[in-house]
Amino acid sequence: MNKRLFPVLTAVSLLVFVSAPIIIVRAPYESTMGLVQKIFYFHFPSWMAMFLSIFILGISSVFYLFRRTPVADRLAVSAAELAAIFGLMGLITGPLWGIKAWGVWWQWDARLTMAVILELILAAYLLLRQYGGAGSDRLAAGLGIFAMANVPFLYVSTEIWRTVHPRTSVVPTLPVDFGIPLWWSFGGFIVLCLALLSARSRLEEQRATLDRLYLALEED
Fold it and tell me: b/e string for 124-158 if b means 16 or more Cβ within 10 A?
C-alpha cells in the first residue's frame, strides 16, 4: 500500500473518531436498552473492519499461493493481525451489549459460535506464521483463504438459523437518528483499518529488507 496514503488516512480517521462521540451522544436512546445500546456504534463497525481485513487477507493469500508475490504475503500477515484485533473488539463489546439486550453474557448459538471459530482461525494463522518454520507461509495462506470463506456464512447465519443475535437486515432499516452515528462510526473504523494496514505492511516491508541485509552480511 502506498506509504503516502498513511498521513491522509490517519488524519481522516482522527477527524472521524474525534467527532464520533459527539454524534453518538446526541443520538437518541433506544426504548428498551437505553444507554447500553450505544455500544452498537462500536460493535458493528469493529466487525465490519474485521471482515474487510479478512477479505484482504484471503485475496492476498490467493495471490501469494499462485504467484509467490512477497508483497501479497506481507499484506496478508498485516491484515491477519488487524482482523484478529478488530475481531477481539467485537467479541468484547458484544457481551457488554448482550447482557442488557438478552439478559445473558453469551449464548452458544450459530452466529456467536462461528465468530469465536473465526477468531481462533486467525489466531492459528498468526501462530503458524510465528512458529511454523519452513513452509509455514504457504500453510498459513491456506488458512487465510479458509478464514475468508467463513465470512459469508458468519454474515448470513442470522438469516439461516434462529439466534439471539439480531438479523443483519436490521441495520439498513435503522431510523435516520440511529443510522447517522452508526455509519459515521463505520466509516471511521474502515479508514482506521486502512491506515493501520498501510503502516503495518510498511513495517513488514522494512523487516523483510532488514532480513535480506542480515543474510547478505552472513554470506560475506
Answer: bbbebbeeeeeebbeebbebbbebbebbeebeebb
pLDDT tens, 157-215?
887 877 777 777 777 778 888 889 999 999 999 999 999 999 899 888 888 888 788 87
Interatomic CA distance for residues 181 and 38, integer angstroms: 9
Q: Where are the domains of the chain?
A: 5-219
The SS3 assignment for 55 reads helix
* C-alpha dihedral (211, 67, 87, 37), degrees to nearest 10: 130
Q: How far apart are the first and last CA of the chain?
A: 33
For the chain, how many residues are written? 220
Global pTM value: 0.89
- Under the banding of pLDDT at 50, 70 and 90, the label for residue 216 is confident
β-bridge partners, 34:
30
Architecture of the structural domain at 5-219: Up-down Bundle (1.20)
Cα distance between residue 122 and residue 114, in whole Å: 12
∠ CA 115-119-124, rounded to 5°: 145
Q: Shortest CA distance to 41 belongs to which of 54, 55, 27, 52?
A: 27
Residue 151's pLDDT is 93
